């Protein structure tokens, strides 16, 4: 393991997270609230740590990056960011324990959106801004992770573009990592800005527009309001946020190409079509069920609330405009399924991802047809490319692992005293980076009453879900840490 | 497709099912109950149907049976058997609708053991004997289907059972299909007889000993008693039944080899060892969970009930001695997972099968190595021998399809009005051919409470699960029916 290199990367990351606290600090100073002090201390601590790490990582050789180092860097990034990001919450006394603070920060950086706060609105705006900002920074990290770093490491079956092997390639935008990152961040910032403008035009305050836009584009879900988007009871806000959540669940490379003038790119992309198809099916069936069960009496209401919730869950955002626990059972199970499916690759959404779902469906179809023709060869194509046997193995293994970790997570949560539906939906929700679930952690509840140990389990699930499982699982292997 | 030949095979099957009604008819005549009439009418119907099917193909030789014909025969076998088998229930009126009668018969022939009868003991003994006999016939069918017919057909995706596949996979016991079947049925009959003797030795009457043995060896779960095995409250009966359920969940080819003098046949088999470990671990965890949550006062009581329920659920039998509806969340979750895992390949148990999970876990481990060492050549081994990549691929696809059908089933059931817990556990219990579930379908409830539409969905899930998914799904592919 290249300790110096890892140390240096962590120094840069720590520096960024600490420096980012300047924005909530400005809100705190502007409001004259006491959280300013917490931010200053956190920044000092964070920058000191950054300095120490920088010293330890001097003369780091970036030419000798091995796969093992990349695993460690990626896994540690989210952990270190959360450790530092938790400081303001803890120091200000917003939450009673460091566990809660860490949970809130991890939920922010992994763009999950589960919260331990019982009454959100009593807290100063600086801290609330920081919650939203952790989403936004986390989302930026995910974009780079999924489009530039994971392809390099090669995990999870969406990686086989390494050395131009045909497979499920995430298109290489430019060969160089930082240029890729900058372009996609441009799209990311542009989308955020557009949403802020639209929300502000509709009469939302600048603070809330910013916080909600950060949360939307990162598909996070933390809101500065107790009742999330339901607070406004505004069809305009609902539809604007639905639209931006939907957009944020699509591969950002497609948005980039679109902005460069390739207007038909979304319609031509197989993954985007599958994703849109699932969303459309879910919205229509949800609206029908809501109408038939009499939860809403008009078609426009059923569509508005149904669409918002469906898109919020499939993109793993976690905003809500209605207490969907009161909805019919069909929507409950549908939402649990959508937590598993998740958005597209190359987006900020979590879950299995539409591309994998598509590939798995094609594999099953090929297998069924081949049963009739035992000697036939049935290639599986995704995005026009034939999946190699390596790609098939990676994708099915990812699915198996995802289900195994979900099952184990639910078992551990149940062992820690959670009831059946809370444990099962909590595991699915944390692993899919959605946020709220059902039972004790429904949309109108929060995670404060969950036992301490269960919070750590949820943190681990969020991290694994966010880092495409392998990354975290592999660093548990001793061979990764050998020199 | 050889229409005439398929017709001939199905004719023989219908005759077998109809003729076996002579046994429950004896009971009915002996007791002088009203169900005798229903059996006579059903037999006349069944034999007429058989005769009609026999006419077109009586001169066709069996050797012309091809892969496609094999699928059609197997797929239709369970459908026709369930239809004819449903007649006595419907004609006698112990079920209110034909959907209920079909469910009861499908549940019998697929050795599921879920019932629509609210008060079982109110039904005449002829009907109750027929329920258990359908289990026993279904179990015989499964043994032949998996160990003799599938290898003979060389069906793709079912290589698992094929003789050439090394390791714990069902070796061809003897090269010829009908001889294989006869040997296996010999073991099957012997196990049934010995269990009956053991039960009668403990004081159970002849009728109950035979019906419970039928239900055990076929891993079915129908009992002529309302409270299943729990009615006796006898440790001796529970121990005997646990032992025989456990044996029936193991590969019948191992029993054969053991009886031929290979004393270490079980110990050497990797799948069997995994099966034992899963049972032991589940019993251990559930016992501790039951004690910690205070469900039982003594270790002995907790162990006794967890042991019986774990073996019953994992072998997909479905007998009960305790209402696990009231067990803690962790115990329920483990039971639900065991429903998905199921018994060993080549047994009468349902579910995904232990062997498939063993292969999947080996496959995942190989994938980890592949990521860290991209150039390493890796093989999945079971029983010390390399398993072909295509086999591993089809096992992974099977798991994906299993989960997909499971999810689609739950979604349909919730759309039909079931709550999430009942739909989720009910789909797992029918697809895995277990029987009792949770929620409104718990061990002390019955499937009679759900709508007719939901009953058909459950029947479809039972048949899909029993026929290893593909066999039934292929009936829907037009290519199967072409010449």
**Structural class, judged by helices and strands of chain A?**
mainly alpha
Integer count of domains of chain B: 2
Number of helices of chain B: 20
Radius of gyration of chain A: 22 Å
How far the N terminus sits from the C terminus of chain A, by CA atoms, comes to: 4 Å
Biggest interface, chains and residues, is:
A-B, 56 and 54 residues
Helix-strand string of chain B: HHHHHHHHHHHHHHHEEHHHHH
Structural account:
- The complex is a heterodimer of chains A (483) and B (483).
- Chain A is globular.
- Chain A has 20 helices and two strands.
- Chain A has a domain at 3-222.
- Residues 156-174 of chain A have low confidence and may be disordered.
- Chain A has a two-stranded antiparallel sheet with strand order 1-2.
- Chain A is mainly α.
- In chain A, strand 1 (381-382) and strand 2 (385-386) form a beta hairpin.
- Chain B has 483 residues and is mainly α.
- Chain B has two domains: 3-341, no CATH class; 354-481, no CATH class.
- In chain B, 65% of the residues lie in helices and 1% in strands.
- Chain B has 20 helices and two strands.
- In chain B, strands 1-2 form a two-stranded antiparallel ribbon.
- In chain B, helix 4 packs across helix 5 (98-109) and helix 6 packs antiparallel against helix 7 (177-201).
- The chains are: A mainly alpha (483), B mainly alpha (483).
Topology:
The complex is a heterodimer of chains A (483) and B (483).
Chain A: H1 3-20, H2 22-31, H3 35-56, H4 67-92, H5 98-109, H6 125-153, H7 177-201, H8 206-217, H9 235-248, H10 252-259, H11 265-268, H12 270-292, H13 299-314, H14 329-341, H15 354-372, E1 381-382, E2 385-386, H16 389-415, H17 420-431, H18 452-466, H19 470-474, H20 478-481
Antiparallel strand pairs in A: 1-2
Helix pairs in contact in A: 1-3, 1-4, 2-3, 2-6, 3-4, 4-5, 4-6, 5-6, 5-18, 6-7, 6-8, 7-8, 7-9, 7-10, 8-9, 9-13, 12-13, 15-16, 16-17, 16-18, 17-18
Chain B: H1 3-19, H2 22-31, H3 35-57, H4 67-92, H5 98-109, H6 125-153, H7 177-201, H8 206-217, H9 235-248, H10 252-259, H11 265-268, H12 270-292, H13 299-314, H14 329-341, H15 354-372, E1 380-382, E2 385-387, H16 389-415, H17 420-431, H18 452-466, H19 470-473, H20 478-481
Antiparallel strand pairs in B: 1-2
Helix pairs in contact in B: 1-3, 1-4, 2-3, 2-6, 3-4, 4-5, 4-6, 5-6, 5-18, 6-7, 6-8, 7-8, 7-9, 7-10, 8-9, 9-13, 12-13, 12-14, 13-14, 15-16, 16-17, 16-18, 17-18
């Amino acid at each position: 393991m290249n300790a110096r290199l890892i140390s240096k990367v962590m120094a840069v990351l720590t520096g960024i997270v600490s420096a980012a606290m300047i924005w909530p600090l400005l809100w705190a100073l502007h409001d004259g609230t006491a959280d300013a002090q917490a931010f200053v201390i956190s920044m000092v601590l964070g920058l000191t740590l950054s300095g120490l790490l920088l010293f330890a990582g001097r003369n780091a050789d970036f030419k000798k990056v091995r796969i093992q180092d990349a695993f460690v860097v990626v896994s540690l990034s989210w952990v270190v960011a959360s450790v530092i990001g938790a400081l303001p919450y803890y120091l200000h006394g917003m939450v009673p324990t460091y566990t809660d603070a860490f949970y809130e920060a991890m939920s922010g950086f992994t763009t999950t959106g589960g919260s331990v706060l019982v009454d959100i609105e009593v807290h100063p705006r600086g801290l609330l801004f920081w919650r939203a900002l952790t989403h936004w920074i986390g989302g930026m990290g995910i974009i780079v992770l999924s489009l530039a770093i994971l392809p390099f490491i090669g995990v999870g079956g969406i990686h086989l573009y390494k050395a131009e092997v045909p497979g499920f390639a995430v298109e290489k935008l430019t060969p160089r990592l930082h240029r890729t990152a900058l372009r996609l961040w441009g799209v990311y910032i542009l989308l955020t800005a557009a949403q802020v403008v639209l929300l502000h035009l509709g009469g939302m305050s600048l603070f809330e527009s910013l916080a909600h836009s950060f949360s939307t584009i990162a598909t996070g879900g933390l809101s500065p309001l107790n009742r999330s988007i339901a607070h406004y009871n505004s069809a305009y806000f609902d539809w604007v946020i639905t639209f931006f959540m939907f957009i944020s669940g699509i591969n950002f490379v497609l948005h980039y190409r679109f902005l460069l003038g390739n207007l038909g790119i979304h319609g031509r992309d197989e993954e985007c079509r599958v994703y849109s198809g699932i969303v459309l099916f879910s919205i229509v069936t949800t609206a029908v069920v809501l109408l038939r069960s009499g939860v809403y009496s008009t078609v426009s209401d059923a569509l508005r609330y149904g669409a918002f919730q469906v898109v919020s869950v499939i993109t793993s955002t976690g905003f809500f405009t209605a207490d969907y626990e009161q909805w019919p059972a069909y929507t409950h199970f549908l939402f649990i399924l959508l937590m598993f499916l998740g958005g597209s690759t190359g987006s900020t959404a979590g879950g299995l991802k539409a591309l994998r779902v598509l590939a798995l469906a094609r594999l099953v179809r090929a297998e069924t047809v081949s049963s009739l023709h035992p000697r036939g060869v049935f290639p599986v194509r995704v995005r026009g490319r034939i999946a190699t046997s390596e790609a098939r193995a990676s994708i099915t293994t990812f699915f198996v692992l995802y289900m195994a970790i979900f099952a184990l997570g639910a078992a551990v949560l149940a062992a820690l005293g959670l009831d059946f539906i809370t444990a099962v939906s909590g595991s699915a929700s944390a692993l899919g980076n959605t946020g709220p679930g059902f039972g004790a952690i429904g949309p109108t509840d929060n995670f404060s009453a969950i036992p301490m140990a269960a919070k750590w389990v949820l943190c681990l699930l969020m991290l694994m879900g966010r880092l495409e499982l392998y990354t975290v699982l592999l660093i548990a292997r001793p061979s990764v840490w050998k020199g | 497709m050889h229409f005439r030949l398929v017709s001939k095979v199905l004719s023989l099957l219908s005759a077998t099912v109809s003729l076996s009604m002579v046994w429950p008819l004896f009971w009915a005549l002996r007791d002088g109950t009203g169900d005798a009439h229903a059996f006579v009418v059903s037999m006349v119907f069944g034999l007429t149907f058989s005769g009609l099917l026999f006419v077109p193909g009586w001169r066709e030789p069996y050797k012309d049976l091809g892969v496609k014909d094999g699928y059609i025969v197997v797929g239709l076998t369970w459908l026709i058997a369930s239809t004819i088998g449903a007649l006595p229930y419907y004609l006698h009126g112990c079920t209110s609708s034909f959907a209920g009668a079909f469910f009861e018969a499908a549940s019998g022939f697929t050795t599921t053991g879920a019932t629509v009868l609210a008060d079982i003991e109110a039904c005449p003994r002829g009907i109750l004997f027929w329920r258990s006999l359908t289990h026993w016939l279904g179990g015989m069918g499964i043994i032949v289907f998996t160990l003799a017919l599938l290898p003979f057909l060389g069906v793709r995706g079912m290589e698992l059972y094929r003789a050439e596949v090394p390791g714990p996979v069902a070796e061809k016991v003897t090269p010829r299909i009908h001889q294989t079947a006869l040997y296996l049925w010999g073991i099957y009959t012997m196990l049934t007889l010995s269990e009956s003797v053991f039960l009668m030795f403990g004081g159970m009457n002849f009728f109950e000993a035979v019906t419970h043995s039928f239900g055990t060896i076929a891993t079915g779960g129908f009992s002529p008693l309302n409270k299943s095995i729990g009615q006796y409250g006898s440790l001796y009966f529970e121990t005997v039944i646990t032992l025989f359920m456990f044996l029936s969940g193991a590969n019948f080819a191992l029993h054969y080899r053991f009886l031929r003098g290979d004393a270490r046949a079980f110990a050497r088999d990797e799948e069997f060892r995994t099966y034992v470990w899963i049972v032991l671990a589940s019993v251990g965890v559930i016992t501790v969970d039951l004690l910690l949550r205070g469900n039982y006062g003594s270790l002995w009581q907790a162990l006794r009930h967890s042991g019986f329920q774990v073996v019953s659920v994992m072998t997909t039998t479905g007998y009960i001695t305790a209402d696990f509806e009231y067990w803690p969340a962790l115990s329920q979750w483990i039971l639900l997972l065991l429903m998905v895992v199921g018994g060993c390949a080549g047994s009468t148990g349902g579910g995904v099968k232990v062997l498939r999970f063993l292969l999947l876990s080996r496959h995942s481990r190989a994938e980890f190595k592949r990521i860290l060492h991209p150039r390493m050549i890796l093989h999945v081994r079971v029983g010390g021998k390399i398993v072909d990549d295509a086999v591993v691929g089809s096992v992974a696809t099977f798991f994906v399809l299993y989960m997909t059908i499971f999810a689609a089933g739950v979604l349909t059931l919730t759309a039909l009005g079931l709550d999430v817990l009942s739909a989720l556990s009910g789909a797992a219990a029918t697809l895995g051919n277990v029987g009792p579930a949770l929620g409104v379908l718990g061990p002390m409830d019955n499937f009679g409470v759900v709508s007719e539409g939901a009953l058909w969905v459950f029947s479809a899930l039972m048949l899909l699960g029993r026929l290893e998914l593909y066999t039934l799904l292929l009936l829907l592919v037009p290519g199967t029916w072409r010449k």
